[in-house]
Specification:
This protein has 2 domains: 207 residues, 3-Layer(aba) Sandwich (Rossmann fold), CATH 3.40.50; 69 residues, 2-Layer Sandwich (Alpha-Beta Plaits), CATH 3.30.70. It is elongated. By secondary structure, the chain is of the alpha/beta class. Helix 3 packs across helix 4. It is built from 11 helices and 15 strands.
Length: 337
């Protein structure tokens, strides 16, 4: 039941005309494409190797532009790698595309439904595309419409559906042919809490049937709740991989104290680093991220250090060990493209 997924040293480089904001993109390097023009090459993946076990829910985390969707694109045959290889079960994704595609179901970041069809027609057409017999198509279609709470709108054109309904239908469509591997690319984006909880319940239920699920998400709670293991990707590389509990246990000191000063305070990082229990200090402008083995008990000492340094401390936020804390530790808190 279920099949494994594997990548080996995947690299993907995009060549395109220089975008307007290219100068501020850390992953871009310019080089000549001809004597009269320059192209930008973007290293989207830089040697990504992953092994997803059969029957596992595997989470991919990373900032915008980290390489998550490119990895999914390669594994689902939508993006051709520059180098490296990928397998769905025993099939090389790019050498045996037809065989690999029969094993997978894909839910992309944005719904790509045919607005000229009804929900029922979309599911039945998808089942026919994958060769399901007529009676099986009808049975599975009815079951999925019921499971995703779409039965009462099954014969309406999807152009009138809400965003949440479209996303539910997209996931139902991906499950229609009962794939062994289900790819969910940020499936809960824009969903209300009730729909998100329904989605989590359905994902767990599908996985209990032995199916392999590969999930990308920005929702730390979602990754923590659903994933058996998680890989964090940044700048096209895997920078951490473990179970959610293992990743949280790896945070230096455990607690994250985010300090903000009215103005940058020269030399304060050295004083903070000397406090008992502090394992790491990171400074970004007037903000300081302090990792420590204790939380609230550090506040009086931090206030004293700030006063001695002549710094005006205006905000303190304490986070207990969590995937979000780990994520910020590995990727920083600067905005990405």
């Amino acid at each position: 039941m279920g099949v494994p997924v594997r990548t080996e040293e995947l690299r993907k480089i995009y060549y395109s005309p220089p975008p307007a904001a290219a100068a501020g993109f850390r992953g871009l390097r310019r080089r000549s494409a001809s004597r009269n023009a320059k192209n930008v090459h973007v290293v989207a993946l830089d040697g990504v190797s992953l092994e997803v076990e059969a029957g596992e829910i595997f989470g991919l985390l990373g900032p915008n532009g980290a390489g998550k969707s490119t990895t999914i694109g390669i594994l689902t045959t939508r993006v051709c790698p520059t180098s490296g290889r990928a397998w769905i079960g025993a099939y090389d994704v790019w050498a045996e595309q037809v065989e690999a595609k029969r094993l997978i179901g894909v839910v992309q970041q944005r719904p790509n439904l045919d607005f000229s069809l009804t929900a029922r027609e979309i599911l039945l057409f998808h089942g026919a595309y994958y060769g399901l017999p007529s009676a099986e198509r009808v049975r599975r279609c009815a079951a999925l419409l019921e499971r995703f709470q779409l039965s009462d709108r099954a014969d309406e054109l999807v152009r009138g559906f809400s965003g949440g309904m479209m996303q539910r239908l997209s996931i139902a469509r991906a499950m229609m042919h009962d794939p062994e591997v289900l790819f969910l690319d940020e499936p809960s984006t824009g969903l209300d809490p009730q729909t998100r909880l329904l989605l989590w319940e359905i994902v767990r239920e599908y996985n209990r049937g032995g199916k392999t699920i590969l999930l990308t998400t920005h929702n730390m709670d979602e990754a923590d709740e659903l994933s058996h293991r998680i890989a964090i990707i940044d700048h096209g590389r895997v920078i951490a991989l473990d179970t959610p509990a293992g990743l949280k246990a790896s945070i230096p000191g455990g607690y994250l104290l985010r300090l903000r000063f009215n103005l940058p305070a020269p030399g304060i990082s050295e004083r903070l680093r000397a406090l008992r229990g502090v394992t790491e200090v990171r400074v970004e402008g007037a903000g300081v991220d302090l990792y420590a083995g204790r939380g609230g008990s550090l506040i009086p000492e931090i206030v004293a250090v700030a006063a001695e340094a002549g710094a005006d401390l205006c905000d303190v936020h304490i986070s207990e060990p969590s995937l979000e804390t780990l994520f910020l530790h590995h990727t920083g808190r600067s905005l990405r493209q």
